[in-house]
Amino acid sequence: MKLVYSDKKTGKTSEMEVPKDREGAFIGKMMGETLEGSTVGLDGYKMKITGLSDSSGAPSRAEIEGTRKARPLLSTGPGVKHPKKGFRTKRMVRGNQISADTSQVNTVIVEYGSKPVEELFKPKEKKE
Fold it and tell me: What is the DSSP letter of 59?
């Protein structure tokens, strides 16, 4: 599972892979809840869950309860790209709760820890 965290102050985003043994701490959490950064090595940080994505690429919607997949009739929001105003379509989306099928968790930093933020957002080294 990937954890994508972003800083609204600087506008920077980074990601990390969550170890398999720590994924259990995330299961059952819902969109809008806060996570402790210490579970993934970001001591002192608190992050708010803003979005999810499952292994098939289906985004999550806040109004769909639980971990189920659904095909609601949508006009705007995650999972919808429509050509004209008033257009509605059915799209496969996931519920608002983290499950074993979740492959990506999007978060925003709410509370900062002891490490400086610049240290978290280091540029990745390019392979030669």
Answer: B
